Amino acid sequence: MSKRAGLIDTTLRDGNQSLWATRMTTDMMLPILPAMDRAGYHSLEFMATVNMDVCVRFLGENPWERIRRVRQHVRHTPLRMMGMAYFFSISRVYPDEVVELFNKTAARAGIEHMWITAGMNDVRTTEVGIRAAREAGCRTEGSIQFTISPVHTDEFFANAAAEFIALGVDALIVKDAGGLLTPERAATLFPALRQACGDVPIYCHSHCITGMGPAANIAAIEHGASAIWTCTAPLANGPSLPADDAMKRSLHRQGYETGVDEEATAEIAAYFRDLAARLRKPTGTIAEYDPGYYVHQMPGGMLANFREQLVQVGMSDRLAAVMEEMPRVRAEFGYPNVQTPFSQFIGTQALLNVVHGRYEVVPDEIRNYLLGYWGRTPAPVDQNLLDRVARGEDAVTGRPSELAEPILERVRKQHGPFHTDEDLLLATLFMPEVLEEMRASQRKRAGNNLSMADAGSIAQLVREAGKIPGVKHVRLTVPR
Q1: Per-residue exposure over 183-203, b if at least 16 CB sit within 10 Å of its own CB, e if not
Q2: Distance CA 341, CA 49 (A)
Q3: According to the model, what pLDDT value does residue 480 have?
Q4: Which of 61, 126, 187, 448 is most buried, with most CB under 10 Å away?
Q5: The predicted structure's pLDDT at residue 479
Q6: What are φ and ψ of residue 144, in 5° steps?
């Protein structure tokens, strides 16, 4: 009898984020959802806080409405999202009351599986989010963040896993956003996690940035994981996740069945390949192995931004110095994960150190991080650095969300009344002018102008046009 391995599809969430800057609209998703629903995926991931942020700020969409619209088209496959732990964007920490309301509201909108990631593997930061998701009826999963440093041993991760199990999670996830996991490390890490987790399932989420993603995911399955994240081929590889069809074939050769239907995945790939071509969107290419990435561990997009910033100040020749400074800053910061928001903290401070001198300029947000307002660091912050930035303030030891001031009642008084918790959360998470721009965009789309970029295909465009009262003719124009 073949062994089972599940494929968790994240084309609409992480593939979209990794290759299309999260600019995929809901209307681009809808035409292909029936095929994705019948493909046999373990679950279908399409939302996280970053996707919700982009929905409002750049796409003019209501993210709660996206959840409901997708739910209407996906009837058999569980819908999943990355829930809220203690921050929504990289700019601030939110209080417990916001975390609790956010995750419960997402569950009411249609989310069935919710995974909560521990920032810097401080599992305390997930307690409220996990409890809220469980109370709302979600299958709830805790996520450790894989990274490499002198303190991130198998024992370190196993201890974090044991803390998640104590919270009653339904599964444990190894989140390797940096693509740093290797088959050799998987061979020691996953058995250690299995011992800590008992019978609780373990999943692996490993990107392809270094070129090691497919091999690392297969090794994870062989050593105790029961499911991995994948994308349809056009939105796979590079900074994204492994391709579903390639992983299905590789796992089959290793004696595993995924239950994924090849005809459905071929239809999904054809749809997104056509969509990418028409919208001039990039498709994924297999990344070359890059050992240098294991030193700085910095996302490629951030490096591109730094390069541009140095050009603007006439210091384009200093990029190598910034790259050398990043590991040093990370060590002084207590070896946080090189993931949002901590990658921004490390990279920004390294850039400032090169341009202005070491720690001559320290932004307030980084100072707050060093003082503990973003959670417990894996290793102690360098004491000399802490003394320099503290300005007499003692470091904090509490959970980030319990240190943040409650804000919901203030938002109700200033911007209410609100008819739904969804509206209250939008007003809490976004500035009034941002919400007004979103609503203006919604009103515009409610008119008679349709776009192939939104509709997905000519056939879908005609179908949508037919739903508008009074429409008798459709004229297609090609922009020049």
Answers
A1: bebbeebbebbbebbeebbbb
A2: 13
A3: 43
A4: 126
A5: 43
A6: -85, 155
